Amino acid sequence: MAVYSMTGFAHASAGAGGATDEVGQKAPAAGAAVSVEARSVNSRFLDLAFRLPDELRGLEPALRELLGAAFRRGKIELRVATQREADSGWPQPQPEQLSKLSRLESTVAGWLPKAQPLSVNEALLWCRQGGASERLDEAALAAAREAIAGLRDARAREGARLVDVLMERIDRLRELAAQAAPLVPAVVQRQQQRFLERWNEALHNAGAAGSVSADALRDRALSEAAAYALRIDVAEELARLSAHLDEITRLLQAGGELGKRLDFLIQELQREANTLGSKASALELTNVSVEMKVAIEQMREQVQNIE
Question: Are 273 and 168 members of one domain?
Fold first, then answer.
């Protein structure tokens, strides 16, 4: 299953087909056409916004259902516009249009006897516009379906690029963890030697250098070094960080709706990196911790765009 970004754009348009005449042919639809733009940015939830002309306002529930079936997260704006080209001639009135117009005129005349009868020009104008709304609805829905499919494809392509970026950062974090693992024993060994030197220096300054045996000095240094090693041990942090990276890799390979789970795992990675930095007593470990935080922050920025 693909990983989808919440960022994308798509455009589609469709022409409104004319009505069917008595011989089964389409009449021209006065050059009517509908264009649909769909754009999406990141959001914690599914946030839909519509920009519809007045004659297509009734399509909002259907458009909302189409978007809800295609997406789960993101701030999506659907903009619909209509275009009507001027005709050089008049459309051919259809029998069903004229029949309906005649019934309407009879009803109005029954209630308003003094009402003026329709002129030929008024009848032609009504026939031109009558039924256009239904044809525009069909064209708008067709264009909307095409735009939504295009937006989904665009978000999938962007999602694939995000996966590549995240996998690069995961590899970088694994390299940093591999660098940090052997640093702790080296730091403990240096600290043990430092304890011995300082202990000897303190005894020498106190004039008691000959009263303490070499074994006692070594035992004392080893004891201090063991306590120090416990304080700076980051094996658990590195193990948890590796486990989180394995889970993120698994989720990216599985795909689907994983933005919120990835966001939680990024927070856990940040916590482990912070702990490693707080335990770092050597410049090497501090540098590793800083590099980890940079990589994790870059991952967090990318994860914010995943559905």
Answer: yes
Residue 206 shares a structural domain with residue 136? no
Question: What helix, strand, coil percent values describe the chain, rounded to 5?
Answer: 65, 15, 20
The Cα diameter of the chain in Å comes to 131
Report if residue 79 sits inside a domain.
Answer: yes
Q: Report which DSSP code applies to 118.
A: P
What pTM was estimated for this model as a whole? Answer: 0.68
Tokens 């890799």 correspond to: 249
> Residue 208: is it exposed, middle or buried by C-beta count within 10 angstroms (0-12/13-18/19+)?
exposed
In a domain, 75, yes or no: yes
pLDDT tens, residue by residue, 34-67: 999 999 999 989 999 999 988 888 899 999 999 9
Cα dihedral 283, 287, 290, 291 in deg (nearest 10)? -170
